[in-house]
Amino acid sequence: MDNQKCVLVIDKALPQGLIANTAAVLTLSLGKLHPELIGADNINNDGETHTGITSIPIPILASSSGSIKEIRRFLKDEVTVVDFSNVAQSTKNYQDYSEKLASTKADDIEYLGIAIYGAKKIVNKYTGDLGLVR
User: Fold this and answer.
1) pLDDT band for position 134 (50/70/90)?
2) Do residues 7 and 116 lie in contact, with contact meaning Cβ atoms separated by under 8 Å?
3) Of the four listed, 31, 39, 51, 128, which is most buried by Cβ atoms within 10 Å?
4) Which residues, at least 6 apart from 128, have a Cβ–Cβ distance to it below 8 Å?
5) 109: phi > 0 → left, psi -120 to 50 → alpha, else beta; which?
6) Which of 75, 70, 52, 81 is nearest to 110 (CA)?
7) Is residue 10 within 8 Å of 60, Cβ to Cβ?
8) How far apart are the first and last CA of the chain?
9) Nearest to 22 by CA among 71, 81, 92, 84
10) pLDDT band per the 50, 70, 90 thresholds, residue 77
């Protein structure tokens, strides 16, 4: 995994709570797609088990919604890209999300954030100049 990289890119205009929620949603979905990102369970000195956590760093980078849309467009066929959008954020359950997304044109989707996982060189090309969420 040394030649792979994982980053989250989140809309810097979002309030902190929504940034945290977006990061949680993106990482859960990415973990489903790439279970190899999660390390093995560990045992502490007292014999208690601690469930495995991510085995690689995941920087959370800041960008604008428009830039996130562009990054997603460039990378969606090159690496794994998971997105979280205004469509998902504005619905109450998964069925509503699925139905609303099916009736929404791609140009009308605003992205709150994306998770990206793939070749380090490609990920860096599109995210290397972004700063961390502060």
Assistant:
1) confident
2) yes
3) 31
4) none
5) beta
6) 70
7) yes
8) 27
9) 84
10) very high
Of 110, 113, 119, which is closest to residue 61 (Cα–Cα)? 113
Give the tokens for residue 126: 């599109």
| Alpha-carbon distances, residue 25 vs 32, 48, 105 (angstroms) | 11, 28, 22
Rounded to 5 degrees, what angle do the CA atoms 46, 52, 47 make?
Answer: 10
**What global pTM score does this model have?**
0.92
Separation CA 134–CA 127 (nearest Å) = 16
Distance of CA 72 to the CA centre of its chain: 11
Mean pLDDT of the chain: 95
Q: For residue 129, what are the β-bridge partners?
A: none
CB 5 within 8 A of CB 118: yes
Q: Which residue has the tokens 């030649």?
A: 3
The encoded tokens of residue 67 equal: 């830039």
Q: Across residues 43-54, what is the average pLDDT?
A: 96
| Side-chain-facing half-sphere of 4: CA atoms under 13 Å | 14
